[in-house]
């Protein structure tokens, strides 16, 4: 029997993009069982568009505020019924055969997650990074390259949140999508992917399941890939590795070493800028400003790595508490008090 | 996954060990050689001796002879190298998904890991497999070699080109091809100084699982002849290259101790596990 699908769109203050996203979803060759929007916006504009223009789309609220995309995904998962939950970002527009292509690999019962290509409109992105799509490398880093056309369905270690899907039973078996990944580079999609892989599931990349990703400005403000993004990418990556592999796994140490090693590139860039090699228009003040800009990016990353360590301790505690409550075991202290 | 291999038949040293290491895991081995037993530079090659050796290990009749005219003296040796490989690769691609392109002095010491990496390369959509080779410079004692290393004696992988490619790949120079590579290394970070230090590593293997490349492990006479037929003959035929090799072989400890003070040519002393069918 063919798997049924529910589509979940998580959104935060991007009503116009969401409208286009839902318009594309309505034009799918095969309609999903449900389309659900999970909205964390503080205003009513998104709700008005969904209720007014897309009456068949379910609308849910996430009241936790900005930076809680992971929680929105879990809300969407909990409220849907499809055998497969497909996630698409509010600024990602699906092609008409997207869902058919995404569901095809689920004919193999070992497949627990399927992602597709996310095109960003960049020149040459179809061929860049083939062979390096969605992998966890031995140095603890993750590769992206989700725009690359592998030409065939391939095995991956993690998926991109803008265009990914999971088998419901597999997500249930690993206790759902975990939150506690704040900021603008959340890692929650990698977290669920890697946990499913660690549990023995197979994740694949289906290059013909295509979405066009606009890369809209963040609803919480700021530019894409700014220093805040660098900070959160490092912080959340450390947290994710600790939560999945623990403190003793060598992958954490390797990642920390890799993060430090990669700062050398910023130092080199700053040096080049100081020597006037990498700055256009050689006005005297541009060289030191350019060098300082490169160094602040390095500082953002290093702060992110450092912040990741105590955050990981906190996240682990939260995970343990959640595990205990799921198992119906009250912490000893709480029991003593009652 | 159907795997075949091609072999450039020219050098009898380590030929037996090299083929035996993967013989039972491939469907077919294409034997490419010049029909006049002449090298890319015009020197004579011991082709008949090599074919005899191969016949003795080819118990399942997997080897297919593919003679051709590859001693094109009007061309640069490296061009001839590429041309002969491309012909052999085309022949080996017939009915295969992947083709091994190992030189006959390269011995896969851990075939299980090697073929596991090849399957992973296939699974990730890569079109070539880069697997680390230990570049052995001289044999200085029982299973002990002078081996190329980092400046401070750390093990390093050598990558003369992908050791396996998808069938039908076009080579650009010698074994090299501009295709997405699945890179296996000895550490999570690149160990080969000739690659960018931030080059991606897909997978790591222990040192004993690397390919043993007995590149310069020969007796004096063979080494002199090899310098003549090699694709790199321009560089190797300079007298100081041979003199240096002889001196370093005679004084391995001195060679190792002076390593950090040289600009390049860094060595360490290392033991290499014995290959299947080894005759050393």
Feature tags:
heterodimer, A: 338 residues, alpha/beta, Spore Coat Polysaccharide Biosynthesis Protein SpsA, Chain A, 2 domains, 9 strands, 16% strand, disordered C terminus, B: alpha/beta, 8-stranded mixed sheet
Overview of the structural elements:
Chain A has 338 residues and is α/β, with parallel strands linked by helices. Chain A folds into 2 domains: 5-213, Spore Coat Polysaccharide Biosynthesis Protein SpsA, Chain A, CATH 3.90.550; 227-330. Chain A is built from 10 helices and 9 strands. Chain A has helices at residues 15-26, 45-53, 69-79, 98-103, 168-173, 188-198, 227-245, 250-274, 286-326, 332-337; strands at 5-11, 34-39, 58-61, 84-89, 92-94, 111-119, 154-156, 163-167, 202-213. In chain A, helix 2 (45-53) links the parallel strand 2 (34-39) and strand 3. Chain A is globular. Residues 330-338 of chain A have low confidence and may be disordered. With 280 residues, chain B is α/β, with parallel strands linked by helices. Helices cover 29% and strands 21% of the residues of chain B. Chain B contains 8 helices and 13 strands. Chain B has helices spanning 15-22, 47-57, 77-93, 111-123, 220-229, 233-236, 239-250, 252-257, and strands spanning 3-8, 28-34, 63-68, 98-100, 106-108, 128-130, 133-141, 144-148, 164-166, 181-185, 203-204, 211-213, 267-271. Chain B has an 8-stranded mixed beta sheet, with helices on both faces. A 5-stranded mixed beta sheet of chain B has the order 5-12-7-8-13. In chain B, helix 1 (15-22) links the parallel strand 1 (3-8) and strand 2. In chain B, helix 1 (15-22) packs parallel to helix 2. The longest helix of chain B has 17 residues, at 77-93. The model of chain B has no long low-confidence stretch (mean pLDDT 91). Classes of the chains: A alpha/beta (338), B alpha/beta (280). Chains A and B meet through strand 7 and helix 8 of A and strand 11 of B.
């Amino acid at each position: 029997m063919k798997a049924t699908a529910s589509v979940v769109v998580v959104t935060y203050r991007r009503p116009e993009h969401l409208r286009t996203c839902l318009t594309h979803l309505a034009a799918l060759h095969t309609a999903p069982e449900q389309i659900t929007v999970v909205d964390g916006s503080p205003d009513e504009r998104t709700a008005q568009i969904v209720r007014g223009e897309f009456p068949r789309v379910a609308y849910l609220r996430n009241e936790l505020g900005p930076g809680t995309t992971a929680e929105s995904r879990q809300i969407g998962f909990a409220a849907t019924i499809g055998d497969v939950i497909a996630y698409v970002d509010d600024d990602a527009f699906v092609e008409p055969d997207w869902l058919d292509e995404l569901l095809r690999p689920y004919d193999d019962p070992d497949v627990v997650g399927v992602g597709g290509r996310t095109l960003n409109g960049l020149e040459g992105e179809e061929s860049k990074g083939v062979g390096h799509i969605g992998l966890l490398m031995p140095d603890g880093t993750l590769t992206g390259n989700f725009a690359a056309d592998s030409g065939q369905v391939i095995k991956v270690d993690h998926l991109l949140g803008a265009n990914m899907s999971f088998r419901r039973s597999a997500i249930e078996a690993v206790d759902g999508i975990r939150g506690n990944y704040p900021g603008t580079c959340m890692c929650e999609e990698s977290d669920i992917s890697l946990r499913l892989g660690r549990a023995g599931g197979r994740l694949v990349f289906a290059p013909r399941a295509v979405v066009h990703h606009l890369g809209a400005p963040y609803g919480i403000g700021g530019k894409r890939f700014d220093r805040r993004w660098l900070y959160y990418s490092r912080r959340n990556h450390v947290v994710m590795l600790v939560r999945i592999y623990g403190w003793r796994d060598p992958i954490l140490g390797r990642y920390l070493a890799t993060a430090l090693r990669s700062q050398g590139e910023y130092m080199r860039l700053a040096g080049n800028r100081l020597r006037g090699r990498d700055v256009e228009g050689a006005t005297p003040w541009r060289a030191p400003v350019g060098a300082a800009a490169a160094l602040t990016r390095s500082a953002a990353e290093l702060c992110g790595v450092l912040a990741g360590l105590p955050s990981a301790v906190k996240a682990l505690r939260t995970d343990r508490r959640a595990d205990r409550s799921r198992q119906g075991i009250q912490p000893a202290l709480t029991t003593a008090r009652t | 996954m159907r795997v075949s291999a091609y072999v450039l038949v020219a050098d009898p040293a380590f030929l037996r060990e090299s083929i035996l290491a993967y013989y039972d895991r491939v469907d077919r081995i294409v034997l490419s050689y010049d029909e006049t037993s002449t090298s890319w530079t015009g020197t004579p090659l011991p082709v008949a001796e090599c074919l005899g050796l191969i016949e003795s290990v080819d118990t399942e009749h997997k080897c297919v002879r593919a003679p051709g005219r590859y001693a094109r003296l009007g061309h640069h040796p490296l061009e001839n190298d590429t041309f002969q490989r491309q012909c052999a690769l085309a022949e080996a691609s017939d009915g295969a998904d992947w083709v091994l392109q190992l030189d006959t002095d390269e011995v896969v010491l851990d075939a299980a890991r090697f073929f596991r990496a090849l399957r992973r390369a296939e699974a990730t959509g890569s079109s070539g497999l880069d697997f680390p080779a230990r570049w052995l410079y001289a044999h200085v004692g029982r299973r002990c070699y002078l081996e190329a290393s980092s400046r401070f004696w750390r093990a390093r992988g050598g990558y003369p080109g992908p050791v396996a490619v998808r069938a039908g790949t076009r080579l650009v120079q010698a074994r090299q091809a501009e295709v997405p590579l699945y890179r296996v290394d000895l550490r999570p970070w690149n160990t080969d100084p000739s690659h960018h230090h931030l080059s991606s590593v897909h997978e790591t293997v222990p040192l004993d699982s690397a390919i043993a490349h007995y590149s310069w492990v020969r007796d004096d006479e063979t080494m002199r002849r090899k310098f003549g037929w090699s694709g790199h003959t321009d560089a190797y035929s300079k007298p100081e290259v041979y003199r240096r090799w002889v001196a370093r072989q005679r004084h391995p400890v001195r060679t190792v101790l002076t390593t950090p003070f040289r600009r390049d040519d860094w060595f360490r002393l290392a033991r290499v596990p014995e290959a299947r069918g080894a005759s050393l």
